[in-house]
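Repro:
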Amino acid sequence: MSAHAADCNDDAHTQERETALPARTADWLLAAPTPRVSPGQAFEIVVTGEPGEAGWPPRLSALIELRGNCPRMALELTAIGAPSLSRQRYLGHWPIEAMGVTRLTLANAAHASLLLEAAPTPSGPSFSGDGQAGSAADPSLISPADTADTIVEPTALDFHEPMYIVFGGKHPKSARYQLSFRYRLFDTQGIVAQNLPVTQGLYFAFTQTSIWDLESESKPFRDTSFRPSLFFQWKAVNPPLGDSLTLAGGYEHESNGRDGPDSRSIDTWFARADLRYHLPDGKTYIGIEPKIWQYMDKSDNADIHRYRGHGQLGLRIGRDSALMLTAILRRGTAGVGSTQFDLSYPIRKNIFSGVGTFIHLQYFNGYGQTLLEYNESSSPQFRIGVSLVR
């Protein structure tokens, strides 16, 4: 389940997307006086190219693509200053919730994009003499070539699956927590990725899930699952409205790090899709994430397919800045399986896309709450706590 979620489409953004004109020219390029912007502040970009028969449009639709699988934000850019035959300056207002390294793209012109780093600054933006946001240098004199060397590479380390700690359960009372990260192995501007573009989507990920017994005298960890994986991931579809289809496939190992009769481990090849569709309000979306796998080795638990099966279905509905409900459904070949529901709501402002502090309620019922207990059924388990990534 990808960890993927800040509110990527608020009402103002939705109105901007409906009223601003889309980019119409195929050879437009974007540049900026600086690769950094301040959330909640005005910023400038320069559009370079042929303006078309009607000249430069007074407004343009743009999209901000955040890290992870967060839906994209719509943004309006307004023309400022006197245009030239090949360049036009545009002014926008950067959303306060969009933080970190992001990609700004002109709507309906995915080739016209620019990487920007959004981070708070104590001084805020500077302004030109006409009262419009600007910089010390006149952005109309800056070309894409001038800014190519200053573009910030997206961070290689990112979040992978939800991260949380929840308390409750019964027989015994326990805490369940999960940590999950992923790392992109090759930078897009590196020698390997430029010569072998397919490597740009190669990731290593690690997820740890533990059940901590809070009732027994020594408070032991009942079981811990370690899941390293190596996989390719790429976005197959990413249209302007923010809907997306992300595909991934690779190798995953899972074990509980024990030996003897308590040892459990599996090795699988897997394939996963993550489809997200926005409802008409522009803020609520539905996510469907099927994942299938083929066992390479399961000698420690030869019949695990009877309880875990060969796939699972992940579901998600809600808003990134509000209530979110997710589900993971599994069914084994023996006709049994497990159901997990997670309901979360932000209790503080998101730090950046998908990350913040959320009150988290979790329900689990069925087989395999831990890898050690893959063939044991538990009664319904309710836990409550907090999550940082959902």
